[in-house]
Amino acid sequence: MKKIISVLLIALLILTAVGCGKKEPQKVVNVFNWGEYIDESIFKDFEKETGIKVIYSTFQSNEEMFAALELGGTDYDIIIPSDYMIERLIELDMLEKLNRANIPNAALLADEYKTTSYDPAGAYSVPYMWGTVGIIYNSAEITDEITSWSSLFNPAYANNIIMFNNPRDAFGVACKYLGYSLNTTDEAEIRAAFDLLVQQKPIVQSYDMDTIYDKLEGVSATIGVYYAGDYITMKENNADLLFVLPIEGSNVFSDAMCIPKGASNKENAEAFINFMTSTDIAMRNMDMTGYVSANAEAAELYAEDLDPEDYAIQFPSDEVLARCEPFLNLPRETLDLYSKLWGDLKS
Predict the structure, then answer these.
(1) What CA–CA distance (Å, rounded) separates 106 from 60?
(2) Is the predicted pLDDT of residue 15 greater than 70, yes or no?
(3) Burial (CB count within 10 angstroms: exposed 0-12, middle 13-18, buried 19+), residue 185
(4) Domains and CATH numbers, the chain
(5) pTM for the complete prediction?
(6) Is pLDDT at 149 greater than 90 in this prediction?
(7) How far apart are CA 266 and CA 100, in angstroms?
(8) What are the tens digits of pLDDT across the range 232-248?
(9) Residues with Cβ within 8 Å of residue 68, at least 6 apart in sequence
(10) Can you give the pLDDT at residue 75?
(11) Mean pLDDT estimate for the chain
(12) How far apart are CA 281 and CA 258, in angstroms?
């Protein structure tokens, strides 16, 4: 009997030891972001600080991100869409409300980002970065002064033009050139923009997003439309590149961190948003991306070290910003028209 009890006690001790040796499942947060839009070295610091591992993937446009959410594929815990898309996601009940108690660093946001037009109560989003859209061109290859969107429709630059590969931005360029609002719902104006894009198509080298880096830096293309922050990083690899915000005006955008509806790791996501909004991390992300953080202190510190040329691009004057407008969420019928015409253009 004693022998049986001893055997049972040994077995129990072994099971207890094995049980004690089991590790808890790794805490994770799945982040879905634009390409070239974060300093990925911060992920190790976040894991060290919180024990949460970052699983990271990227998209190239708001529309691509939206399609991924609609398909219900990978379970994303954090997405970083732009203003108008956030407004749309809120309207469609596709975002979780944030527990602001878990995001104390939101107090560091500049006043103009503590409430936004796309999320007035700040219930669903915490602003990340902002910037403008303009023309990037190679001044060694193009000696003309570039000031207008007309350059993207100029046959003299045939087969050297890179155009946005998403409908809202591409139509936005055409609308601005024609003198229309980025947010027009007038079908005649939208169709006029479409006609202009059709005329442009034969002289476009390609419709691109992130691949524009290699093409403009490597001179396989000489002119394209893209974001100001990306210009700041591109010119480090090609000093001949210049940026201009066209005289007709352009888009000024704000991107923000959100949690998709039904996210599996909501508290982990809120911890990540809080980490990203801290001054030190915001500074590191600005250094890597060339965009301006919504964190007021970080933006001020970052601006101190900029040369005047970069400062004018990353912190446009009020006069320049007066020519710009944000994209707004549009009625369903207008979005359907954009989708149809974009499909016709690309077919």
Answers:
(1) 26
(2) no
(3) middle
(4) 27-130+254-317 (3.40.190.10), 131-252+324-346 (3.40.190.10)
(5) 0.91
(6) yes
(7) 12
(8) 999 999 999 999 999 99
(9) 32, 59, 74, 76
(10) 86
(11) 93
(12) 18
Tell me whether strands 126-138 and 324-325 are parallel, antiparallel or unpaired: unpaired
Structure tokens at 306: 């900029």
Residue 152 neighbours by CB distance under 10 Å: 25
Return the structure tokens found at 143: 């000696």
CA distance 328 to 88: 9
CA angle 68, 73, 78 (to 5 degrees): 65
Cα(245)–Cα(104) distance, integer angstroms: 36
Residue recorded with tokens 């590191």: 284
**Averaged pLDDT, 92-108:** 97
Determine the pLDDT at residue 172. Answer: 98
Could you read off the pLDDT of 202-235 as tens digits, one per residue?
999 999 998 999 999 998 999 999 999 999 999 9
Q: How far, CA to CA in Å, does 111 sit from each of 83, 271, 304?
A: 17, 22, 20
Given CA atoms 304, 252, 95, 47 in this order, what sign does their dihedral have? negative
What separation, in Å, do the N-terminal and C-terminal C-alpha atoms of the chain show?
83
Hunting for tokens 């970080």 — which residue is that?
A: 298
